[in-house]
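Tokens as discussed.
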């Protein structure tokens, strides 16, 4: 079975084509025929964060060329002698789909109508959560392709895609390996084994827009144990980086400074001492008795810490970055392990762009091994930790539930929250 997957939830345009080999009705292995990504990070850096209108515009500009490139890379692109002419019904359907994006419709007609219908069995597309203007670009394109090629379109929850990515084990010379493959070329032409999840399992989803702790009691079932009440962890990284005068996205920049402070040793009175902040940053909600998170107060504490320095030197920035990263890591690890013990989970799965953070990966591996030695820990390949088309393709294979009409849902949840966020409480009062 071959799936074309489309991801446009935020500022990454991702298109992948995956081929699943089935055994006894279950997915045995996944071959990646194409996995392409265009990032808008540099464009949004001038705003210090993602600007939704610009994200939508860039997705609309990039998505069709990326699909054409993916089809070519997968060797599924064959030119027609004459461009296909839409029937009156087809034209009506596509015009309705693209009624808010007529320019994209023109590009669609000028390019995709020149190709033979490729050997694609289904199309998977992110339906949420994310920025709704950006989501609609992917959804409209997917539905138009589904109508043009007469194949089903499968809506995918973006967060379920992050979970699926962590369950992939890349094969090397015919064997599966847990080692990180750092070559981008290898990711595009890789073959993966898809692990079978042992339930109950626990997923920690951490990204620029999400911090969620989700219990998976059985296949396809989710229970939201906790989530952020304000800023997502990735958002907090970005905001703290901005306070320190660092570039966007802030996560990698904070991590670089924290690593320098981790290894830096300074001399004082002939004794070797590792410098620390005079007042350590708080560990928010560490002992709250629930599984929710809050990072807004931590961000404010960083601001106060910065103001204590008359002149903020590079060394001072390193100390602040390290203590901030330590605080975030301690809270994430402690709450996850506490939940894992309470629900006696067999697996802990990390997903989302923040899982690329070296400190978080390292501490999770150490603490789970020490405190829950019988529990398996799964963390995605660093190259696949961020948003990408492959994760949507894999989740589409697992779900395989097409819909005739898909709606973009910017606040789509895997499960209902145990406790509401501040935003949800405000909506209930209105």
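Sequence:
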């Amino acid at each position: 079975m071959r799936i074309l997957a489309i991801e446009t939830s935020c500022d990454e345009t991702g298109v992948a084509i995956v081929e699943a080999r089935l055994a006894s009705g279950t997915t045995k292995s996944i071959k990646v025929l194409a996995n392409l990504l265009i990032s808008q990070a540099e464009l949004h850096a001038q705003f210090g964060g993602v600007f939704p209108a610009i994200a939508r515009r860039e997705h609309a500009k990039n998505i069709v060329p990326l699909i054409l490139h993916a089809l070519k890379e997968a060797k599924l692109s064959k030119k027609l002698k004459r461009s296909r002419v839409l029937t009156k019904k087809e034209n009506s359907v596509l015009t309705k789909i693209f009624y808010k994006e007529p320019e994209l419709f023109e590009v669609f007609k000028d390019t995709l109508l020149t190709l033979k219908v490729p050997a694609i069995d289904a199309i998977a597309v992110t339906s949420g959560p994310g920025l709704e203007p950006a989501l609609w670009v992917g959804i409209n394109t997917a539905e138009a392709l589904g109508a043009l090629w007469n194949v089903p379109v499968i809506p995918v929850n973006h967060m379920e895609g992050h979970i699926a990515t962590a369950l992939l084990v890349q094969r090397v010379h015919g064997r599966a390996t847990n080692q990180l493959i750092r070559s981008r070329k290898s990711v595009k032409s890789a073959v993966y084994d898809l692990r079978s999840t042992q339930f109950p399992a626990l997923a920690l989803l951490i990204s620029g827009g999400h911090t969620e702790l989700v219990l998976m009691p059985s296949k396809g079932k989710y229970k939201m144990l906790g989530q952020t009440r304000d800023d997502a962890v990735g958002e907090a990284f970005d905001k703290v980086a901005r306070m320190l005068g660092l570039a966007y996205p802030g996560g990698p920049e904070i991590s670089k400074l924290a690593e320098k402070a981790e290894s830096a040793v300074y001399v004082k009175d002939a004794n070797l001492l590792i410098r620390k902040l005079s007042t350590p940053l708080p560990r928010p909600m560490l002992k709250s008795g629930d599984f929710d998170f809050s990072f807004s107060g931590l961000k404010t504490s960083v601001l106060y810490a910065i103001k204590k320095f008359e002149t903020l030197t590079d060394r001072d920035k390193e100390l602040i970055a390290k203590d901030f990263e330590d605080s975030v890591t301690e809270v994430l690890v402690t709450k996850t392990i506490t939940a894992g013990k309470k629900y006696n989970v067999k697996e802990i799965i990390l997903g989302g762009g923040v899982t690329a953070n070296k400190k978080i990966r390292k501490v999770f591996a150490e603490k789970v091994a020490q405190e829950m030695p019988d529990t398996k820990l799964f963390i995605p390949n660093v190259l696949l930790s961020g948003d990408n088309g492959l994760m949507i393709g894999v989740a589409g294979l697992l779900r395989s539930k097409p819909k005739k009409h898909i709606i973009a849902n910017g606040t789509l949840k895997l499960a209902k929250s145990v406790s509401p966020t501040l935003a949800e409480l405000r909506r209930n009062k209105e």
